[in-house]
Design goal:
8 helices; mainly alpha
Length: 217
């Protein structure tokens, strides 16, 4: 894979993002932890609030990371920013306005796998900061990869109004997961694995029936 930027440029972008926007990224992390913890203790998770959280994550990644910083080393980041904003708008429309994304509680394999991905997403900045001796030039929170892990983790057991909500997260998982080998960001190796598991889940007959029930609400 030929990338339009070097590993040094990539980590410089992360460093600039972390230094400039760490209060916002930290606030997003605290809000995410609090809402996920709240939802984990409920028999009926707050679907509208979780959809709003995902919309905020994708909009933040689009504007605060891709548009504001990543475009300096990669012109394709403008396209990424646009796609991430489309994903944010989809969560707002289907999840907040129409309330057709239904998050569920349970102990199925989807819930267990989803919980593992959510934990990985929330621990993402802590792991990288610990491994890098608190260096600022590491991926932390609010950047696309933990956002995608959190998204797949939450949506894996959820009832979706359309499989099209998965296209952009799956596409980013494959792209970023492939690039992770060039940069040594080992946590991102989870992305293509998560994407494959999610696609298989969406293709299973019982998910199709659950999706049909969601659309009838």
């Amino acid at each position: 894979m030929q990338l339009p930027f070097t590993p040094t440029e990539f980590f410089d972008v992360l460093g600039a993002y972390n230094v400039a926007l760490w209060p916002g990224a930290l606030a997003l992390w605290f809000i995410s932890v609090a809402l996920v913890a709240l939802a984990a203790g409920m028999t009926t998770p707050p679907s509208r609030a979780l959809s709003a959280l995902l919309a905020a994550h994708w909009a933040w990644s689009a504007l605060a990371y891709h548009a504001a910083f990543f475009t300096k080393v990669n012109p394709m980041a403008w396209l990424f920013a646009a796609l991430f904003l489309i994903q944010a708008a989809a969560f707002l429309w289907y999840g907040v306005v129409q309330q057709r994304i239904q998050f569920t509680a349970g102990r199925s394999w989807r819930h267990v796998a989803g919980a593992a991905l959510i934990i990985a997403a929330l621990l993402y900045p802590i792991v990288h900061l610990a491994q890098s001796a608190l260096s600022a030039r590491v991926p932390t929170f609010g950047v696309p990869c933990p956002t995608t892990l959190l998204t797949i983790g939450l949506l894996l057991p959820a009832a979706l109004p359309s499989w099209r909500l998965a296209v952009i997260p799956v596409g980013w998982s494959i792209l970023a997961g492939s690039a992770s080998f060039f940069f040594g960001v080992h946590a991102d190796v989870l992305l293509p694995v998560a994407a494959v598991v999610w696609v298989i889940s969406l293709a299973l007959p019982e998910h199709a029936m659950k999706q049909e029930a969601s659309c009838s609400l």
